[in-house]
Specification:
Helix content is 13%, strand content 40%. The longest helix has 39 residues.
Length: 329
Amino acid sequence: MPDSCKCRPASIGIYLLLFCAVAVCVWFAADRKDHAAQQRRMDYRYVPPELIAYRETSAYPCPVDGEPTCFAGMNDEAVIVGTANPPTLSIFNSKTLIRKIVLPEEPKAVIYCDGNFVVAHSQHIAFYNIEGKTTASLQLPAESSDVRSLAWTPDYLFAADTGKRCIYRFDKEGNLDLTFGEDLIVYAAPITMSFSRQDGLLYIANPGRHRVEVYTQDGIHKPELDWGVPTADLSGFAGCCNPVGLAVLDDGRVLTVEKSVLRIKIFAAGKLDSVVAGYAVLNPPPPKPVQGRTPPKPGQRHFAAAVFNGKSIAVFDFEYAVVRNFTPI
């Protein structure tokens, strides 16, 4: 047998060993890459650049006297900041304080509709006109009520009671005619909600279940439209209890706000659509905080958001009393 034929089996063996070694190295590198990608996805601070659909265009301080307790958009230019100690509503328009209304007690939630400020207090919901005069008052049914969110529809006023863990519906005459949502779970976050004029439904945050639930205006739960799971991934909600804020855009997409992990996201039909701002944008102190306000303790940052012009978004930083405006890229 020729010498070349005698060497062939040994050569094949060496090639096989080299092939196996290369395959193992490629597999190991791919596995490490996949693991790193998975770890990055599970880091609540990470937002893939392609998901960021908004940019911050401006920010301005709101020099209020007391501690901010609630926030809402008044129209496409003005915002409302409610405070305690002293209890007031302050209206800012294009960085300027245009009106301050002194209240008899702390505001816990506020919305503006039909020329009135609708304010939730500890035992009742009051309507104030632009001059601060009380025009109507609705009594809450329980001493332990803690209304932290209001929603106005063409036919009803809805109030989310974090204390009693339910939703109240008031008719146009001010009568409490329906209570629903008693299975909402609350630990350390309020129940918040928003009304969609696109489909006529109420979107309600169930923070204890890390879920957004959908109800008709007659209090009928639509579980097939719910979404949300407890996860650090952007597709769900992280922390002990999130989301803590909701707003519906004109096209029906739903904006959610998370505390502590500091994420503001937009969902379409229950699927993650885009990100307004994440931890890297929201966590640093704003450039112009209100003078005299001290930085919050770690993990206590809290934001609220309002939609302007159906698409631009005003974000209020409760600790620093600053409004930050975001517009679509």
